[in-house]
Structures are given as structure tokens and as C-alpha cells.
Amino acid sequence: SSGINAEWSLRPGAKETKYTPKIPFPTECYSHIDAALQVKEFAFIVSGPTIWKMRKESDGWSKFDGYPKRVTSVFQQAIGGVEAIFKVEAKSDITKFSTFVLHGYNLISRYNILLRDNAEPLITISWSGKERNSFLTKGRTTIDQTIKAAFTFGDKTILVADDLQSYFELSWRFRPKDGEPLLAGITKLTDMNKLFGRSPPKAFNAAMTFKVVGEDKENIYQFRKDLVYQKEPFPNHITEGVDATWDKVPDHFKIAGWCPINW
Q1: Which residues contact 258 (CB under 8 A, 6 or more apart)?
Q2: Would the pTM of this model clear 0.85, i.e. be above it?
């Protein structure tokens, strides 16, 4: 069995000791979203050691059967807690997405997500556990800090620093022979108003790009505590409190067992 109150059977003669797992067991109680990623009509939502795979529907999202699962059963070897997930889409192959997971405080792992007809996306591991400052470096700029959130907008990857005082714009090029994404540039920016139209609140914890239904443009989901806001980043911002659309995370993503803590 599993869960916080799981009971364990000891072999005869074994001395009873209190067992505390390094990573908590998945429970039925969730309080916030740590990371999120959309790939076409699919999404991956992470809370602590737990992950949901979702499918887009007219009234929000619904989870696949068999979820939630442990993060490491979907993104293998992404140990130590997930900070953010982002994808890099090659123009030459619209069914294959290079996906990067920031985890374990200073690690980065790379995966391939392959979309298949009439089947769930296939996820394979490319490499794991690199120190992020050995991969996220270009020229004199190196990203060696924890990241609050990541999302892709247009052809750039946005990484928001954990202190919410700066963010990084990553640009990419692709190796001709196999489409491997290679980091082309990193720009560090400190004007947070340019990113979201205002400084992000302390409760901001994750973000995910999504296509606006019926329109050829991208907005982002911005996760704060138990709320998710639908916002437009960069030049044409939604006015906070007026045009911004928000919903409860468990309602929009249909996550059962939500139990917000007292913030």
C-alpha cells in the first residue's frame, strides 16, 4: 500500500524502525502546481512528486486513466523535485518535441515527446542529471539558480527566476542532421512588467503556454496557489482584474482531492 499512513509488514525477527521516505508518497491531497507543460492537445501538470497527463476538452482539461502517477514514472530519473518543464519545438518535425525538466535544485534532464495517431504521447529519455550550469550557458551568461516557472512563447523559452526579480530568454538553433536543439543565446532581463504587465505576485508558482481556441495566438496559464489565470504575455497585456480570466485549478483541470493550505 502507499500513502502517508501506509502500514508495512516486517519479516520475522526484523527490528522495527520508523521509515521516512526521501520523497513523499503521492497522496490524494494537493495544494499548488509546481510545473506545467502543454504539447498540442495534451498537458502535463506537476504537484510535488505527482504528475497528471491531461487532454484538452471544451470546458477545460481531463486526466488520462491511471493518473496521477509519480513524476519519475513519466519523466524517468527526474529526481529531487521538479521546478519547471519546457519544450523546444523543431519546425521540421511537428510530432516530436524536445522537452527539458529542471529538477533537483541544479539538474536538467532532456526527453523526447513523440505524438502518435490514436495513442498517448510516447516519452523517451535522451539524457539525465546534467548540472544545469553546464548546459544553460552561452557567452558570459549562465543559469545556475533555481527557477520558479518556464514556458515557451513563440520561438523563445522563458525561465522566470525563483526570486521573481528577473527572467531569462533562451533562443535555439537546430542541428541539421538530426534536429537536435542547441542553445543559441541567453538574455537576462529584469523588467518583470514587460513579461506579465505587472510584477508577478509571490504566490506565482508555474506557467504554461496554451493556444487560444479559435484564434491563432498563444496565451499562458499562470498558476497561483489554487487559482489559474489565463493571461497574455508581452506587448498586449490583459489588464489585471479586468480582462484576466481565472478559475480554480481543481475545476479547470479536474484534479480531485484538492486541499489548499492556509497561505
Answers
A1: 29, 30, 31, 226, 248, 249, 250
A2: no
pLDDT at 71: 96
Rounded to whole angstroms, how far apart are CA atoms 106 and 84?
A: 12
β-pair partners for 5: none
Question: CA 74 to CA 122: how far, in whole Å?
Answer: 10
Give residue 27's pLDDT: 52
Residue 24 has a pLDDT of: 47
**Residue located via cell numbers 518535425:** 93
Given a cut of 80, is residue 217 above it in pLDDT? no
